[in-house]
Every structure is written in structure tokens, then in C-alpha cells.
Fold each of these.
Amino acid sequence: MPETKTLETTTKTINALISGITKRQEDFDYTMTELGELAKAGGYTVVADVRQKADFPTGATYFGSGKVEEIREAAELHDASVVIVNDELSPSQLRNLEKQIKRHVVDRTQLILDIFGTRARSKQAKMQVEIAQLRYALPRLRNQTAGFDQQGGGSTGGGGAALANRGSGETQLEMDKRVLTKRISHIKHALLDEEQNAATRSSQRTASDIPTVALVGYTNSGKSTTMNGLLNLYADRPTDKQVFEKDMLFATLDTSVRRIDLPGNRQFLLSDTVGFVGKLPTKLVDSFKATLAEAKNADLLIHVVDYADDHYPEMMKVTEKTLKDIGIDENVPVIEAFNKADLRADHAEFPEVNGNQLIYSARDDASLRKLADMIEARIFANQVTATYQIPFTDGAAVNYINSVAKIAKTDYNETGTLITATMSKAQAARVQKYALEAE
Ligand SMILES: Nc1nc2c(ncn2[C@@H]2O[C@H](COP(=O)(O)OP(=O)(O)OP(=O)(O)O)[C@@H](O)[C@H]2O)c(=O)[nH]1
Ligand SMILES: [Mg+2]
């Protein structure tokens, strides 16, 4: 078996063989490395790696027949109970492969769905993942058992293997399908309610005229670490508000929104969102559209990039494509934030600003201050400065200005308060009637 490599095993989990077809793409090696990372995140130990060079997959079994046999032998030799494939397989390809390899076959989509399934925390994220899992499972429901040990599989998905092989006879299958379809529509309704609540919260925030900034990017690039760093420097009680960060794929599935208070009353809302990965299942992207609405409605995006990973250009492309798929307006300004500069082999200087790009480290305060400056310059760019003459009878207007604006000067005369302040156009519109003619 010339193309089989034995890889080191560390923890005692389910042994898996990873496999893929290269269509001579440059990024193939990288997608296979990433598949290995995804497998680890899914609780597998990768014990072997089999690859085929082909222009297109074989219809019935995805791999060519010789390669299928090679995979079967390698799986046996390395004691792999699961074979993971680097693409989404059709239901029949999956069935045929399982029959011939006599192992559980998990495709890239199922693997990602499983990881999301174990990571989802909030009610909304759990429902979004379950819908994607059920939509994946529905066409894959089947009557007969594949004739191998069903217990060995690592699929933890809500709808996957657990539901796939039970029952006998067509009526059972039809019943299963009906149950699944009903469940999908039930969750969809519940999710819609949940999303409407979220939309209300989101529009309430917009109504407060505070600009919003969203952190987006590839998984593990450092979005959550960046958010925590900014909170540390600029939030009231930063420790209460920290989000979860960890060196693993898909640490964050839920969107968190936090208020950042820059000096001089310059507040904005910062949201941390789910990370992206190559070949993110469309069903999953669809399900997460609502969560990603925070990014969609943002005034500014911070595209966080793992600058210490050689594959960062590919990762950036995936992120840009995913943002497009979600329907994010191309006119939303973006800061490209090249993170983890401290880990660069070439010891790149940081922080360093170049137009809309920042080279930085989320673990470095000077870097985070630079990022905050860049954010401030962009979201407060279209602000208006004016002097307002507010009668003593409208204390609320004075309070409003003091709470949202950057104040240059406050004076009093016989009729009221004179404030010179800078704020967004939307905020200024609320107190426009008190504005004095500009000199
Ligand atoms: N050395 C170094 N490590 C960093 C830096 N920024 C983030 N990390 C580490 O990178 C790992 C991933 O960081 P996260 O902030 O969880 O990444 P994320 O983008 O939120 O990832 P997901 O939530 O999975 O999408 C963590 O172990 C961080 O400690 C950095 O500037 N330097
Ligand atoms: Mg995160």
C-alpha cells in the first residue's frame, strides 16, 4: 500500500482512517490536514491516511474499486473502525462504501455536523444544528443493516447513524421519514420564535444608535481572544463578560454581543460569531444564517486571520466566500486583522497598520489599542460636531447627549445648557432641534 501512512496515536479514542480524492487542486494537502484536525475535534484518533488521484469521483463508490480495496485493507491493518471521507457523499455512495469496506463511513459533512452537535450550547444553536443534522439524515434513512458492528461508530449526531439503521420493512422506513419530517418542521417553528426574539433584541440595539462591529473569520483564528482582549481593556467588569476561547476547531457556536466603551463616550457593540471552515455544509450555513445576522447588520466587520498559519490565504478565501453565501453586503467596510503575529517564524513587526490591514496579536495590549483606534476611526468617521442649546426643562436631552456623545465643552446660560458634542448622525438627529447654527 504505497500511499498509506501510519500516523502517531496519542489519546485512546475511536480509530479512524481519513481518505480523499485529489482533483489536482493545490489546496488538497491542506484540506486533508484540516480533515485530520476535524477528525480530532470529533473525537477520533487518525491512524491512517489513504488518497486517490482522480479527476472525478466514481459514481457508485466515490473511490475507484482498487482504492476501495486499499482502504479496506488499511483500515483492517491499522484497526480503524471508521473511515472518514473528505467530501459529502451521496446516500448511495455512503451505503455502497460501507458495504464494501465493512466499516462505518463518515463524510466531511457528517463530521462537521457531529462536532457542531457536541459544541452547541444555546437553545438556538442546538436547534440550528439539529435541523441541519435531520436534513442530512433524511435521505440517508434505510431499511437494512449494513452487516457490520454498529456499535463501533463514532457518530454522535442527533439524526445520523442512530436513526439510520433501525426498523424493517417499508412501513417502518416511511414511519421514520415521517417522524423526521415532522420533527424538522417542529424545530423550524420553535427556531423561528427564537429568532424573532433575537431580532427584537437586535433591533432594540440598533434603536439605541450604538454602532455594531462583528468579528468574523476562520475557526481558531482568534476571534474570541480578540473580543476578550478588547473587553479586558475597555469594559466595565471585563471578567463577567469574557467569552470562551480555546485552541480547538469551533470553540464558539453562539453569537455573543458585548458593549465596548472606548474613552470619550465612544461605545460600540462587538459581536463574536461562529467560525468558518472549508467545505462548510450548506445545510449548516443555512441554519446559521440567523445567528450570523449580527454580522449581516454590522457597521464594520473585523476579519480575523491566523497569520501564523501558512494556509491563511486559503482560509481568507473561504471566509470571504462564506460571507458572500450568507448574503453579507459587500459594501460593509472590513478591517483585515492578521492575528498571532507573535507566532510568526519571520518575527513580523507588530502592531503594524497598513490601510485597512492590521498585523497584531490578540494577546498584546498595544495591538488591541491599535485595533480599537482603527475601529474608532471607521465607525465614528461620519460623525457630526455641533453646539446644542438645551432648555433646563429638557434634562433628558442633556442626559442623552452625555451618554452617547463625545463632549468637547459644556456651559450654562440663563435659559439652559450649552453643549458642544460629537456623535453619529442618527444620534444627532434626536437632538437636532436644539442645534445652533454652525459658525
Ligand atoms: N500565541 C497566540 N495565540 C493566540 C492568539 N490569538 C489567539 N490565540 C490562541 O488561538 C486559539 C484559538 O483562539 P480563539 O479565540 O478561541 O479562536 P476563535 O477564532 O474564536 O475560534 P472558534 O471559536 O473556534 O471559531 C486559542 O488557543 C488562543 O489562545 C495570539 O495572538 N497569539
Ligand atoms: Mg471563538
Amino acid sequence: MAAPASKAVATTLESIARTKPAYADLVKTFSPLMAKQAELAETFAAQDIFVPEVDAARLGQEVHVLAGISCEHWIPQLETAAKEMLPLLKEMIPDEAWPGKKDCTDPLDGATLARLAEARLGGDQKTFDDVAKTMEETPAPVLFAIAENILGPVLSGVAKKLNKSLSDVPWDKGHCPICGSLPSIAYLSRKEQLGLDQLVGGGGKKHLHCSLCGHDWAFRRDTCPACGNTDSKTRELFYAEDAKHERIEACQKCGTYCLCIDLRECDPVPQMDAVQLGLIHLNVIARDKKLAPMVKTTWNSIES
Ligand SMILES: [Zn+2]
Ligand SMILES: [Zn+2]
């Protein structure tokens, strides 16, 4: 059985701090936040929370599971996540950018969180701009980051519950079948134990890891998740000579990249959200090559 995600987050961060000392300070800063997110996701997955039906016909039409679903179903979980996450987030955000006033400890009520969650899922930037204006002009990107940090663990809990019912439904798209977001990272699977006569599969199957809900799904190795480009002449790999298992997969057709880790070279297997903290140098290389990340994350937005 796999280790619980919160344990895997801690192990991954410890390993980064040990093997890549340049990241040790960052690990220290972000550990409490990331541990709390993983812990909340586990708590929600163990609760009797609202989970939508998986409709194979809808998925067949490329409509992800949460499309058009009201986030008011998750107001209790959003409130719990806000209560736990806001004090940690407040320590990382300058007072002048904090929503409401600098002393405001609970700037977002459940109904507002549900509204922002729906806006995030629907790609509706205007709602973030509108809500930000009502909060002492907090910058909309700050509000967006706060909302994502609160929504993420709730959707991760939902994704964990949906995992089983999604395993039989075919999905070959580059965006998440649950929440519709693009991947923050990809990985090649480890050798798997097949069970019969101790047969061992070769591994190396490509999976994408959702940037918002953390769901993992299989994807073709020869294709750009963002634009579907399969032309090998316009797709490129970059990596550091001493760490070939950590690489940048770039697509010249759409100008984006996604990081990819070969898990056959990793021991122990890293947790896929936490591992990104130790790969900022690859994002810097990609930026120098004028490539844009498929989706913005904390780790690919940090200026070096
Ligand atoms: Zn997702
Ligand atoms: Zn592309």
C-alpha cells in the first residue's frame, strides 16, 4: 500500500533539502503549507463529501467531471480548508496585498469561496477581479493564489474518491478528466509488479499530474498535452547532464513546456506536488529558452 500523501510530502521535501541544499530554505518555508494541504486532502477523502457521478458519455464528449457542477456542495470543506490554510498563507503574503485589511484573519466566507472555486474551474478571471476590488484592492493574482491553495485540498479529496470510478473510463486528453486543468508535471511510471508469477512490467508509461486536483492519468508519450502536437521534429527534451531523469519536455509548436520525471530512476518515489519545489532550476532553463509553462504554479513563477 502506498504511503499516505502527507507522509510522502514530508519524505519528498526532506529528500530535496538533503540532496539539493540550495533548496533547503525554500523547503523550510513551504513545508508546513504543503503538509497541511496533503493532510486536508486525506481528511476530506475520508469524509462523506459530495462526489459527482462519473458519466462516461459526457467524458466521451471531452467534458470533465466537474464541468458545470456547483461548488456550493463543498462549502463546509472550503470553510475548513480556509480556517487551516489562511494563517499559513498570511505568513507568506505581504500585509499590503492581503485581502481585506492586514489584521483580517478570515477574509473569505464559504459563499465567496464557492463562487471563487466555480470561477477557477470555469476559467472566469473577471470574478476574481470583481471580488478583489471589494477587498481593499488586493491584487487579483494574490486572491487567485489564495483561492487555489484552499480549493486544491478540497478537490484533491474529491479526486481521491473519484479515482476508482474513473479507472475504467477512457480519457486521452491533455487536461484533467476531473477538473479540466492542465498538468503541472508529468512522470514515467516505475516498473510495476503484475502479480502473476512475479512478472514485472517494464514501466515507463507516461502519466500527467493535475495542477489543481492532483489526479493522475495516463497519456501518450509522443504528444504535447497542451496542443496535441505529435511531430517529433518540433518536440524537444532538455535536462542537466547529471540528472537526466528530470527533464523539460518542450513543444515548439505551441511554445509551452511541461517537466517530466522518470520514476524508474527515483527511490523513494516522490510525491508529485512536493517534488516540483526541487525542480525550479529546470523552470529557469525553460524560461531562458523563451518557453511558457503549460500552467502557472508557485514553482515556475519564482524568479531566480
Ligand atoms: Zn484535476
Ligand atoms: Zn504543444
